[in-house]
Design a protein that fits this description.
Elements lengths: L6 E6 L5 H16 L3 E5 H10 L8 E3 L11 E6 L1 H11 L6 E5 L14 H10 L2 E6 L2 E5 L9 E2 L2 E5 L7 E7 L2 E8 L1 E5 L7 H4 L11 E7 L9 E4 L4 E6 L4 E6 L2 E6 L4 E5 L4 E6 L4 H9 L8
Parallel strand pairs: 1-2, 1-4, 2-3, 4-5
Antiparallel strand pairs: 6-19, 7-8, 7-18, 9-12, 9-16, 10-11, 10-15, 12-13, 13-14, 15-18, 16-17
């Protein structure tokens, strides 16, 4: 067997169901059959050990810090959209393309069927795919947050803490005062994240190529306040007031507490998240089929 000069990294959060375990085993088996190098992220390796799932094969282990030295060409993940969001913190600025096998619920980012392992691998070998370059948000602050990797694929959110009263968020665009939000919080969403938390709070859907961000308040006190779409070359800064001494901020699924007076701003990152889209996949098809967009419930 001639070895294909390719290394593929694999990541998963958990291995709780048979669909995910079967997908992983079939994927690894087919990669080895094709002579492709198999690398497990160390979190997946630990998950398999904790779950007592045995893999009848040989694989290498890599950490986030070793992803470049391992010369990984693609990162494949097994799980749902939350697992896909995790991969940003693994590939970081490397530009390594990512594809997800959906073993979760919606599968808006993780779009491949877990039974289509051979088809996916063959398309990667033939390079029969497209790369969707998804814009990212970068958080800047006067203190280090999120272990020094303060980026988001979906959204940046300012939250009130627990069941405390609403907060006041003074918002500035490129240093110019825009608006004061009295609300439970505020979402800044990328086009990728516009169909997630922001949408559930009444925000607009942004097409990935729209070069824009959406600002969406969470349960605003003023009903006249509506979501706003801004160019993605805008720098947003915030001043937060409230009755408590700290607030929550989040980047995708990661959250941390910040003290009152912490200076924060968000802007477009200078690199993208490279999402693999197979030849038959289409963003608008996914929007209609996954989000039931435009469907008449009476039919």
């Amino acid at each position: 067997m001639n070895r294909i000069k390719m290394n593929i990294g694999i990541y998963a959060r958990v291995m709780r169901n048979k669909i995910a375990v079967d997908c992983l085993q079939n994927l690894v088996s087919y990669l080895i059959e094709k002579g492709i190098g198999v690398y497990f992220h160390d979190n997946l390796h630990k998950t398999l050990q904790d779950s007592k799932v045995s893999m009848d094969c040989t694989y290498e282990i890599f950490t986030t810090e070793e992803i470049l030295s391992a010369k990984i060409d693609y990162l494949l993940c097994i799980g749902g959209d939350g697992t896909m969001l995790d991969t940003l913190n693994i590939v970081r600025e490397t530009g390594i393309p990512v594809l997800g096998f959906n073993t979760g619920r919606l599968g808006y980012l993780a779009t491949s069927n877990p039974t289509d392992v051979q088809k996916v691998v063959n398309e990667l070998i033939k390079k029969s795919y497209h790369i969707d370059k998804r814009s990212l948000l970068k958080l800047e602050a006067d203190t280090e947050l999120f272990n020094g990797f303060a980026y988001a694929l979906n959204d940046f959110v300012i939250h009130k803490k627990d069941s405390t009263s609403m907060i006041t968020v003074h918002t500035y665009l490129n240093g110019e005062f825009m608006n004061t939000y009295w609300a439970d919080g505020l979402i800044v969403a990328t086009p990728t994240g516009s169909s997630a938390y922001s949408l559930s709070c009444g925000g607009p859907i942004l097409i990935p190529q729209s070069a824009s961000f959406a600002i969406t308040p969470i349960a605003p006190h003023n009903l006249s306040v509506r979501p706003v779409v801004i160019p993605d070359n805008t720098v947003l800064s915030f001043e937060i007031e409230g009755r408590v001494k700290s607030y929550l901020i989040s980047l995708d699924s990661r959250s941390c507490s910040i003290k009152k007076g912490t200076q924060i701003a968000v802007k477009k990152a200078n690199f993208t998240f490279n999402l693999i889209r197979l030849s038959e996949e289409n963003y608008l098809d996914a929007l209609r089929n996954k989000m039931m967009w435009g469907m008449d419930a009476r039919n």
